[in-house]
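Handout, section B. The chain below has 563 residues.
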Amino acid sequence: MNILGISCFYHDSAACLLKGGKLVCAAQEERFNREKYSEAFPVKAANFCLQAADLTSYDIDYIGFYEKPFLKLSRVLLDHLRAFPFSWKSFLNTMPLWLEDRLILPLKIHKELCYSGETLFIKHHLSHAASAFLPSPFEEAAIVTVDGIGEWATTAYGFGRGNDIKIIKEVLYPHSLGLFYAILTTYLGFNVFEGEGKVMGLSAYGKPKYMDEFKELIMVKSDGSYKLNLKYLSLNRESRMFNKRFEKKLGKARNPEDKIEERHCDIAATLQKVLEDNLILIAKNVYKETKMDKLCLAGGVFLNCVANSRIIEETPFKEVFIQPAAGDNGGAIGVALYINNTLMREPRIYAMNHAYLGPAFSADHIKRVILNHNLEFLEFKNDELSDYVADKLSRNKIIAWFQGSMEFGPRALGNRSILATPCNANMRDILNSKVKNREYFRPFAPAVLEENAQEFFEIKCASPYMLLAPKVKKDKINLIPAVTHVDETARLQTVSKCFNPKFWHLIKAFQKITGIPVLLNTSFNLKGEPIVCSPEDAIKSFQRSNIDYLVMDNFVVRNSGDF
């Protein structure tokens, strides 16, 4: 059975393909159309999936969509009616989008993909739940999903057993942890979608001094259930989601160009603590209700790696699986697996143990692209390449590393990465200011050999998807200052020889030179761009950057200077 899963129209549009019960490919539309967080119908991502699986649309048995559009429309209409007449402008901007494609999605799919079969729809948070539980290694597990908003649900929990998922309880809009975090993100002068990660990084620079004020903004019970105080919000009433009462409570909102003050750091720290504490209460309550010792997490809020680490450390769950594409992109996986395993009752034969599901390019293709751009290059054998690049890294050179299949989800995990030494205390500032062109407080991730992880970090489990932020061990902080955040944590990637041997060998070669089995790893993209997908994307970004070398497959291209 061949099933195409689709998510789109809001942010992080994506497509995936399930073939014979196994997830064979998945990609986000932004990587192809080069529009960051693209909401467009994922026609390019879907076509990639079909080509990668050697199928056409006529071979597809079902297409699944990750939410129910008519149920979502009911919420949108009611929300605008409640805010009328202040919502009139928003209503006029929103309704054409629904009439153009969202209410006629089967026709849209037929037009874009030439598909005439059956399209199935499931609820947004059920897609999140399925994306976490069905590809997990667990026969049964508790499930928690938290994001901004689906149709009506914003938080849901329940459990999975075998092929079935049961949702026990939902929190409904306008009460939303994800929305609350987004509102504070805009208040602090950052953009929604990309700004939440900035706020998480900024929070380490402050202290949670605004707990009393936040108790007025969000009311949390001992079981983790919560309500937002709507008198401080202006949903669909103004161009921003908070009102003058909100600013009276916390102070004037920061404009994007304003200097970041201590107050802003403290508000970010308070927000982060409120989120973490609330998620821990929810997780403990779910454990109490389900009596299951395994937990599955999905929804965009669980991209917050600091909160994830506290859930693992401070709740009774013994094992946790977090969907690496925890946001809306992962909904495509969820609906495809739900159709296959739950609706069609096919056995669960797929366990997600890596995220390398996107396009890959042959050595011949890469070499042809390099030659077409008239670039000088060297070609190496595998072992020679690792030694050569590791030597450059040990000499403080910055490497763009383009290998194998592109990662699915928001993190670069060693196939579309920018790499540098973690040992140089100045490297974080160099990368932020001269390469990524981003804020000074943004941390970078360490990629560590899986077998050495516990030697350097306070962690008891693997972290292959950069979804955990454990403490760096005290005696190792001075060894890897470029990847140690101000609070002595690090957003960690553990690298397995089994699932990414080339990246593993590179880190191993760096260890032989320096004694450090860690590299600094950040996504291969420049400010405002999605992560690179193709060799052409890689060269374009490389030539506009201050990166020293571009490594694609076994080819090394220099930006300036000598090889």
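Note. The first helix runs from residue 30 to 33. Compare this with the example in section A.
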